[in-house]
Amino acid sequence: MNTLSYILIQCGVILLTAPLVNGLIRKVKAWSQKRRGAPVWQMYADLYKLIRKGTVVSDVSSWVFKATPYLVFATALSAALLVPISIRIQPALLPGDFIMLVSILALGRFFLMTAALDTASTFGGMGSSREALISSLIEPSIMVSLITLALLSHTTSLSAMMGSMQLLRLPLIHPAFLAVFLAWMIILLAETARLPIDDPATHLELTMVHEAMLLEYSGRHLALMEYGAALKQLVLITLIVNLFFPHDQWIPMAGIAGIGLSITIYVFKVILFALLIGWIEVNTVKLKLFSIPNLAALAFILSFLGILQYLIVGGA
Amino acid sequence: MILGSLSVLILLSSFVLMANKHIKSYVKTFRAQSLLIACATGIMGVESLLKDSRVDVLVVCVLIIALKVIYIPKLLNKTHAHTHYKVEKDFILNIPLLVIICFALVVFSYFILSSLGESHVQLANSVSVIWIGLFFMISRRKAIGQIIGFLVIENGLFISALLITEGMPFIVDMGILVDLLTAAMIMGFMVNRIDEEFESVDTDRLNNLKG
After folding, report:
1. Residues of the domain holding A109
2. Can you give the pTM of this predicted structure?
3. What is the C-alpha to C-alpha distance for residues A312 and B111, in angstroms, rounded to an integer?
4. Shortest Cα distance from A244 to chain B (angstroms)?
5. With contact defined as beta carbons under 8 Å apart, do B58 and B45 qualify?
6. I need a surface site. Which of B9, B41, B86, B201 has the fewest CB within 10 A?
């Protein structure tokens, strides 16, 4: 498939699905509290409303504050291009590897933290210091777990990794992949500001991390920030479902029909995964901020166990 | 392959135990670990039943579920309900450091068992469970933590023996399980008595006995 149609399909599917994940997670939480809850497409309506509204920018803030929403959105979208939703639509040459993915996401986060400091509000500074704590604890385990996968599949490109995972059929039976998968579950919850680490539904100053950094934003800027966060969440979910639950090997037909079926199965997997995240959120309580290093240590150890299994057992 | 994954999960559960500080979740994690061990034993049992039509491994599996998954956790919960403390507060080191030291223990057991060749991976995982149980006993100051550590050591020993021998003689397994049951009962009883008498089960106070 050529590069242009890859970009169009990839961006289209990711942009359309990302707010749905948030809607589904909120719906699961509402069900658990015996409420009907907002419709699953609520976030689309919210984004539409915010984009039409004007923005308020503090007089004392610099260009960083205004540039950050666009940067956060752009980094999330370019990260999305590195993680193909289906192995069938990837172009012949897909530049970039997992190191680039991690650094693109880190760039977005850097600007997010700087912009929160920029307005000199106390909540923003508190939010960025907490974000820095969490991300510096979680990023080593992202790198180590992805290095394990790269060693097992002899490539650093994410799409080639997905290809080699498909040859295994059910990767999760393999001990190394099992350890890395469990590490990724912790990483996903930490990176997307989900419940054991950070509560996305709260605006209580004692507990918020990600929301504290968005407090000063309004209108179009806020819409871009929230859309960027949703995109990043979907990129990480895509990485997990396509690496550990590959589906393309089960599809017999080729061509347009195969691609359509593959994308449908992908969306279905994402929906199931969103329900799983909602279920996890319902069943956990928020950790104390100083207990987060314990969880991060577990994620790090899990990804290291993966690499240890690789070094002993050898390639899969 | 499935046994390998199970042994990784058993190792993981001992890490989770190490990163916890609520007594209630100690018992929960111990129960989950025992359940995983029962699964591994069940798989081995079905294999040996099909291969040489032995039923004793399956009987041991049922015994493990009865004792380690149901009875001993219940006993521990009862002991826990009587004592005064619910959360472990003072460790010898902080938790992330403890977890990383545990990981060094895992690397150590991989290193010492690496001469055995490729088949030893599951064995290395289960031997590390023994080390972690030992280290768990050292790192906790309260008596219930030490009972759990003892039980985790036993779990590690059991799964190692199972993986090496593909099912030990029935009488040996029975002996170990009954021994374990008696030990857990006596220790639970002792913890209760000590708590009643001295209003604390901090083992550091034993240092006062030194001359």
Report:
1. 3-313
2. 0.88
3. 10
4. 14
5. yes
6. B86
